[in-house]
Amino acid sequence: MMKTWWKEAVIYQIYPRSFMDSNGDGIGDLKGITSKLDYLKYLGIDVIWLSPVYQSPNDDNGYDISDYQSIMDEFGTMEDFNEMLKEAHERGIRIVMDLVVNHTSDEHKWFMESRKSKENAYRDYYIWREGKEDGMPPNNWGACFGGSAWEYDEESEMYYLHMFSKKQPDLNWENPKVRQEVFDMMTWWCDKGIDGFRMDVISMISKTKEMPDGEVNGLYGNPGPYCVNGPKVHDYLQEMNEKVLSKYDIMTVGETPGVTTDLAKQYAGEDTHELNMVFQFEHVENDGKYGKWTDEKVSLVNLKKIMSRWQVELYGKAWNSLFWDNHDQPRAVSRFGDDRPQYRDVSAKMLATCLHMMQGSPYIYQGEELGMTNYPFRKMEDFRDIESIHAYEEWCKGGLVSHELFWPCLVGKSRDNARTPVQWDDTENAGFTIGTPWIGVNPNYKEINAKAETADMGSVFHYYKKLIALRKQNPVIVYGKYELLLEDSEDLFVYTRALDEEKLLVVCSFSDKEVTFRIPDEFIGSGCIISNRENTYEGEMVELKPYEAFVLHKK
Ligand code: TEU
Ligand code: CA
Q: Which of 32-39's residues contact partners 24+ apart within 8 Å by CB, and which partners?
């Protein structure tokens, strides 16, 4: 297996709007990020993945870009960006940019031209179709954020395709000019010295030519089979690799909804010349009652099956990205752990152990290292996210499900859970802003905050710091082979990692009860390199406390 810096790296995701506000307007910004680089350096991360910071009307918080080569006014200026990049590099931290090129904003100049007329030079930059004879949309496809995936345009009396909101028209990748524009823009950023790209919904850039109705689920048809992992996606990525990526020492990660392990070997194969790694979603999408919305906990047996399949099938062939949460997911500790006060700390550490000891590059979503929790939403006005607001309208107001049944599902899974401000200290607004924050601060900031946790050696923060340091000291964590034990246990996630003579035993209890565990013979007497409980693991039998996790190292 090829050794590379990005396989050994720990990545920290910043959602700039909610990270740190430097000027009191209630919105996080680039100067805010620069001011916290020492904190990130102390934590020990290697790479920052920066969610979009480009000019945007913010229909979807920056994932709707109106200018790829300038900075969103609210976040600062290009000088602020250059300064942040320089300061990060001085600390040995790399910066990976979010590349959102499945779609642009409808306020991007390409789209404003495109919609002017059928003859416009930019017309073919987007996907336009005639409506049906009765004037209805070209097909029944639903958009990810609700409603039809087609929006009628009065001016030219045609429909354009948008897989997300109607302010996010999909680019037409069939058009070589579109591809060249994207490659030129990427080159411009690479020449500026950035260190890579996280590519938004990159598995969706190629659509089938025929666009038949999709299978109906709720009000609309599912466009998935025609838009996800489409016919030319690998051609486009190979072209991108040849024209841009291969020229720089950068890291690339594709956000690839709908990816399977087989497809991942193509997208992120060791020698397929596309991307370095992909985000897969099987382990965070194996629940859902009403579409993605649910209030049920996932089954540990299923979770283990999915994660282990990715570990085993990609081994030696492609590279995994490891994550529990991001800006689109609820908080890890609330979803997979237990955020009740007596278990929050210990279950957050358990989840971190479970993830960081697997093979792949771990991603820490801002605040995860503090064990930040979901937000106690009480009314619709508390939400900011377009997906949550539209979902409520479609499912509840649309009469598909009652408010009583839907509300807990919305509260538990809303993307806004991840988007509340990072809790820096116990002063007003958690030290995030001296103004009024754009979204509510979680009221638990008095107990859960960076100031308290950096001062407490037993905190979740210091536990993450230790896990990151262990990765640097033990190649077996990066390159070792994975094997699942006790696959049928509903309480324990246990696996080993092996590299030459070295072996790790990773034991994580997902239970709030005590569980007995027998240490496999070959590990009896091995040293413990990390544990979230005060325990020695000397004998053969271990009485695991709720959410206990530990790692034994056999040399
Ligand atoms: O998300 C892509 C994606 O697949 C989402 O639909 C995801 O499944 C959903 O947010 C989960 O609820 C990316 C970005 O990460 C997201 O923030 C953007 O809104 C979206 O693309 C459109 O750019
Ligand atoms: Ca600000």
A: 33/84, 34/80, 34/83, 34/84, 34/87, 37/84, 37/87, 37/88, 37/91, 37/93, 38/91, 39/450, 39/454
pLDDT tens profile 100-159:
999 999 999 999 999 999 999 999 999 999 999 999 999 999 999 989 999 999 999 999
pTM of the model: 0.98
Residue nearest to atom 11 of ligand 1 (CA): 328
d(CA 553, CA 474): 10
C-alpha distances in Å from residue 162, one per residue of 126, 148, 218, 366, 527: 9, 9, 18, 29, 55
Active-site entry in 80, 200, 416, 491: 200
Nearest ligand to the C-alpha of residue 35? Answer: 2
Residue 74 CA: distances (Å) to CA of 45, 138, 223, 325: 26, 38, 34, 25
Q: Which atom of ligand 1 is nearest to the CA of 145?
A: 6
Span 159-214, pLDDT tens digits: 999 999 999 999 999 999 999 999 999 999 999 999 999 999 999 999 999 999 99
